[in-house]
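Journal club prep, notes for RB
We'll compare a predicted complex against what the paper describes. Inputs for the adenosine-5'-triphosphate case:
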Amino acid sequence: MIETSNFIKTIVKNDLESGKVEKVITRFPPEPNAYLHIGHARAIINNFEIAKEFNGYTNLRYDDTNPAQEDVEFVEAIERDIRWLGYEPKNIFHGSDYFEKTYEKAVLLIKKGLAYVDDLSQEEISKYRGTLTEPGKNSPYRDRSVEENLRLFEAMRNGEFKEGEKVLRAKIDMASPNMNMRDPVLYRIMYISHHQTKDKWCIYPMYDLAHPLQDAFEGITHSLCSLEYEDHRPLYDWVVEHCETEHKPQQIEFGRLSITNTIMSKRYLRKLVTENHVKGYDDPRMPTLVGLRRRGFTPESIKAFILSTGLSKTNSVVDYAMLEHFLREDLKLKAERRMAVLDPLKVVITNYPEGQIEYLDAENNSENRELGTRKIAFSRNIYIEREDFLPEKPNKHWKRLSKDIEVRLYNAYFIKCTEVFYDENGEITHIHATYDPETKSGSGFNARKPNGTIHFVECSTAVPATFNLFEPLILGDDITPENFIENLNPNSWSVQKGFVEASLAKVKPEERFQFLRNGYYICDNDSTENNLIFNRTVGLKSSFKV
Ligand code: ATP
Ligand code: MG
């Protein structure tokens, strides 16, 4: 794994050395309202890795204080994804676990004269808030007595008001240059059943109150979040200070990760799914972790990719090719190699005895002998890739089969094409060839050089298979939330029907292979013994240089 240093590690190290903290505790706080995407992987991996490096630990905490869009489906998916990445949270908590304690802290703020119940409507509140250049105005309800505020807040909790009729606000400074400090709303009324607390509550705390308190209750030492929360940090600190919590967490922001040609925000991913532009959150074209998994990405490659992008205080856009680069690096020595023919052309080897079949030794990975060998079948009838044959050799760069031209078959013999057969439309139906028994793989034959090496699959043992091939889901360099739907690539998913070698007959979903000369593939979750399906994860060649 690549060793990277980053500014957060430096802060953590200093805090430990100075004795400011004894044990590093971090958390990953997703809102359970969607599936996780590769951007979340940056937050997950850094939270877990930083804590691990300094002998601390990491909690998973569902930020479920807004019941409007949350669902258990997402809760389960998030846990699966985190474990798939290789991490086990020390504790799994819900923001909603702390509703009672959060309520008590709000009461404390009221008692200290630092919070009040406001009757202004949402619209009026934003009007009173002022602008970046003009200070805001105090609400006419700002100076209610502590007793009245306590009574009204309790009445809010007891369901005595309608939604929007009242809110609880912090009493800070309506003239603050930081808009977040202009008496932010702390609680609002919502008659929505919550997936954890059901109908127990009809008031829900806002993120800016709930989050710092949750961090404090759990003893989180370093609360890492993305850059858009930077302006909220003064409010975070205000809450921690005035709520008199035992632990004092600190918020540290890092830049968000974006990837070229990729839409990441959940809102847009949801749109792709609900409008049926893709087959679901786990569509292999999606940048969700379930999508990348189904596409064939390994957790190790995602981790290596994320760590290589470091952590900085600015948002960054990383080339998708770099993610693929780390995947190839990871699979190069790990994946066993097999032969698959996606677009078959039948070759009859006329000098090979009819009815005979032989089994030849083939290495599972010529760059990693530890992966052993297997047997592959060879006979009179084989399939080769249609694109590996042209009736006439077009030029000296053509290193494949042509009439009267000899090539090597991987792990087998040299063959030479002797005759080409066409149908009435001029399409090639099959070809004839001869083989040279002297040239058997491993025999050390070197009397002449073939015109390249191609792969094949023996016909009688070949297993039919479906291959899903992918291109980017969205085209163009300038993808925005406004234009991504019209820039969807109509060719992002294509299907080919071909054959794989017999050793793959019992392949199971999520097994990965390199198909020789083609790319890395994963057996799809819908694949069965009678209907093998492979997803192309990535081609063999990269244009990306690190
Ligand atoms: P989105 O904006 O994609 O809808 P979000 O930030 O609303 O995502 P949360 O569930 O709130 O999603 O995210 C959980 C954590 O993951 C947060 O700490 C957030 O900062 C972090 N995170 C989300 N997207 C990215 C990203 N692209 N890069 C880095 N961190 C991210
Ligand atoms: Mg969010």
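Talking point for the session: The chain has a mean pLDDT of 95.
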